[in-house]
Amino acid sequence: LFNSALNSVSYDNYPIVSESSVQNMLKLYLLGAHQKVLSEVHEAKGRADLVVNTDNRRIVFEFKYAKNETEAKSKLLDAVEQIKTRDYGNIVPKKTELLRIAAVFNAAPKVRSFTEYQAV
User: pTM, whole model, 2 decimals?
Assistant: First the structure.
């Protein structure tokens, strides 16, 4: 779904050149879909990139930006470790379900998509 959203954006007019550009484009997409989304959510041990809250579910995203596939695989491990050590999403109000996702955007010119992701 996120790859389809990013594929809809003109690469020359709105280049994705950093983690924050990925984060902001996806935040705008989710806001347009009428989701309750917050970015850079401050918690006790750090900031979660994006958090989507529904009545019973909290979805936490930690994004990383990579220049190639080798870097993408390494950055996925970093994102997973960051979610675990900082315990993102374990805040009040508690939700019935907590889903935490690490995702890496591969910016290689012939790729330009999320190639690595993992539920944590």
Answer: 0.93
